[in-house]
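We examine the record.
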Amino acid sequence: TTTNVPANKQIRGVIISDRVNNNWTTRNIVLQDGASGIVVRFSADHTFNVGDSLVVNVGGVELSEFNGLLQLNNVPLTNATSPGAGTLPTPRTATIAQVLANLEAWESTLVRISNVTFPQGGTYSGSKDITDGTGTTVLFTRTAASFAGTTVPGGTVTVTAVVSQFTTAQLNIRTLSDVN
């Protein structure tokens, strides 16, 4: 259920989402600390970048789920400060089956999945069912993403992505360099 965070609380972590390539709405960031992550939805567009270290005062802020995705909602921009560059976390190496089995625990964290295949043809834009031989999940790309119109690769690739949900499990890449 929707609740508010108790007073005088803060979180900190490193931003793993990339606003520059626009695969996230301009009000959202994904913040990871160690093996845990969360979406922070600001009350206005932010200017934070992937790799920035961030401290966010979250006392009194709404904690809720949006279509299954846990988020801190309507956080004032003035509640967040960046002490500088952080160290991006090493993505967890996993299979699609492991991501699906651990969806709630791994949500809003980076994973790296090998032996991924895309459907034949088409572009990144929208929902693409990807598979690695252990399972199938959706790789979602916003139509506003800078790489949305790029043709998906053929053959087998490795995908680094943020684990997410929109009613069901999905993965979100940050840039085309997340697909090798």
